[in-house]
Amino acid sequence: MKIVSWNINGLRAVYKKNFIDTVGFLKPDILCLQETKAEPSQLPDTLVNFTGYQAFFSSAEKKGYSGTVIYSAVKPLQTGTGIGEKKFDSEGRIVYAEYEKFVLFNIYFPNGKASAERLAFKMDFYRAFLQRCCKLLKKNKQIIVCGDVNTAHREIDLARPKENENVSGFLPAEREWIDSFLQAGFIDTFRHFHKDSGNYTWWDYKTRARERNIGWRIDYFFISSGLTAFLEKAVIHPDITGSDHAPVSIELSL
User: Fold this and answer.
1) pTM score of the predicted model
2) 165 to each of 58, 80, 132, 146, 173, how far by Cα in Å?
3) Are 243 and 6 in contact (CB under 8 A)?
4) Domain total of the chain
5) Which residues are part of the catalytic machinery?
6) At 248, which CATH number?
7) For range 103-120, the mean pLDDT
8) Which range marks the domain in which residue 211 is found?
9) What is the 3-state secondary structure (H, E, C) of the chain?
């Protein structure tokens, strides 16, 4: 099974940049997109009724903001949105699907750069989501979490760590949350296979950072430890353009 995650920075925008062909090239069984910035009613039918996939959307109350979608070629047992707290759920940041062997969360985690209030919101979101995952783990559920986490975990995960020590996205508290998430029973799938530097998933458009590979690795696949034996690959696809983020993917023998 191949699962792909991609912050497309606007589904309507990426649709005009060979999106359908890109999906055909990647061939995911499940495709998770973040920052869709659209409701289904605003999208062409091709994206609402994507050939070969069922679509499950979570849209923000604010128009043109946030949003997530799962396109699944595998029929899930059930699907849902949010984590049960309106202040988080109104932004369309979470859509999930439960399958026979795992629960998949597709998440666009908040960005904390705009203000102290948004940083606090981000940290509250982090804590609430970890609590949700811990409850599922206690029920012996296996979990896959993918999406734009908006934090680089280690110095190896961004090109200029020293310059960003006091910037949201690399603050100690944000990085410590990833530590706590892993300690709760998850693994960072990319780091399971790849220990080297220079692997990033986001580059700043304004400074043309992608051309120089001055980036951040902020897009992840985390899996609960019980799925580790089934994990075959974890890949970043930096050559696929269309967004300021690169797609990431995992393959599981499920």
Assistant:
1) 0.97
2) 33, 36, 29, 25, 11
3) yes
4) 1
5) 148
6) 3.60.10.10
7) 97
8) 2-252
9) CEEEEEECCCHHHHHCCCHHHHHHHHCCCEEEEECCCCCHHHCCHHHHCCCCCEEEEECCCCCCCCCEEEEECCCCCEEEECCCCHHHHCCCCEEEEECCCCEEEEEECCCCCCCHHHHHHHHHHHHHHHHHHHHHHHCCCCEEEEEECCCCCCHHHECCCHHHCCCCCCCHHHHHHHHHHHHCCEEEHHHHHCCCCCCCCEECCCCCHHHHCCEECCEEEEEEHHHHHHEEEEEECCCCCCCCECCEEEEECC
Cα–Cα distance, 130 to 114 (Å, whole number)? 23
Q: How far is CA 84 from the centre of its chain?
A: 19
Per-residue pLDDT reduced to its tens digit, 73-110? 999 999 999 999 999 999 999 999 999 999 999 999 99
**C-alpha span between 92 and 90 (Å, rounded):** 6
Locate tokens 């990319």: which residue? 190
What percentage of the chain has pLDDT greater than the value 70?
A: 100
Average pLDDT, the chain: 97
